[in-house]
Write a structure and sequence with these properties.
The chain is of the alpha+beta class. The protein contains 8 helices and 8 strands; from the N terminus they run H-H-H-H-H-E-H-H-E-E-E-E-E-E-H-E. Strand 6 and strand 7 form a beta hairpin.
Length: about 270
């Protein structure tokens, strides 16, 4: 089931309304000034829709520049767009439709609403959004205090140097972060951050600070994944060189496996040294 969020519902209404309103306009009846304003409106609506979509999907450049490029391309192709639009209207009239513009507006609004409201249409197995609040209740469950303490340790400043770029934004996100209850067994925690004020840069990265700890003579590593500039996942990994790799993985999959206390981990920070 795909749940609409408050933010997505507002975007659905705004996007569908803008496309529907512009589709009602007959550009062939407009004067020069109004015609120019109409073209600017179409380009601006296209730019806004592309920029909004890029915020939640993988952008080509970044959301703002993607929108600017899309708006510019649309403006440059308005002669072609209007020619196609006129042919559609005339064809519908020849078929006996008395109000073809109203039909095109309804189709355009419905299509825009579907594109915004159903971002995972091509991924039917994904029934939830990591980044948004489901309507009426927050996503996920409270982040366990021990996991929060471990993430705080990974994001903390080093004794002799500041934390890596993005640490302040991630520490701010941690204050409201929750964890997704996937119903699975294991030590990995899928984190949920709703409407963060700031995002970490780079947006996609493995945090360059790891936490190592021993459990039953086996060395494990804590890794923090950053997804879209937000806290993404806290994972417990087993190094490939671990002699008892198979046993270590079976321990990780056990419901009895618990995260270590922060004072039981050794922080390993990536440096420029080979």
């Amino acid at each position: 089931m795909i749940s609409l969020t408050r933010a997505r519902m507002l975007r659905v209404a705004a996007g569908a309304g803008a496309v529907g309103a512009l589709s009602l306009v007959e550009p062939r009846r407009l004067g020069p000034l109004a015609h120019g304003a109409y073209r600017v409106g179409v380009a601006a609506a296209t730019a806004a829709l592309v920029a909004d979509s890029s915020r939640y999907d993988l952008p080509v450049l970044d959301p703002v520049r993607d929108g600017v490029v899309a708006g510019g391309v649309t403006m440059g192709l308005m002669d072609v767009v209007e020619s196609f639009d006129a042919r559609m209207v005339d064809a519908l009239r020849r078929l006996g439709m008395t109000r073809p513009r109203l039909a095109l507006a309804a189709l355009g609004a419905a299509g825009t609403a579907a594109v915004i409201a159903l971002p995972h249409l091509g991924d039917p197995d994904r029934s939830w959004s990591l980044h948004e609040e489901t309507f009426g209740e927050p996503a996920g469950v409270p982040l366990p205090s021990e996991a929060r303490a471990l993430i705080e340790a990974l994001l903390a400043d080093a004794p002799d140097a500041p934390a890596p770029p993005g640490a302040e934004a991630l520490r701010e996100q941690l204050e409201t972060a929750r964890v997704l209850d996937t119903g699975g067994v294991g030590a990995d925690l899928q984190l949920v951050v709703e409407d963060p004020r700031r995002l970490a840069v780079p947006r996609q990265q493995q945090w360059p600070v790891r936490g190592e700890f021993l459990r039953g003579g086996i060395r494990y590593e804590l890794e923090l994944q950053i997804d879209g500039g937000r806290l993404g996942m806290l994972s417990v990994m087993v190094p490939d060189e671990e002699p008892r790799l198979e046993h270590a993985l079976s321990q990780l999959a056990s419901p009895a496996f618990v995260l270590p206390d922060p004072d039981r981990i050794a922080l390993r920070r990536e440096t420029e040294a080979p």
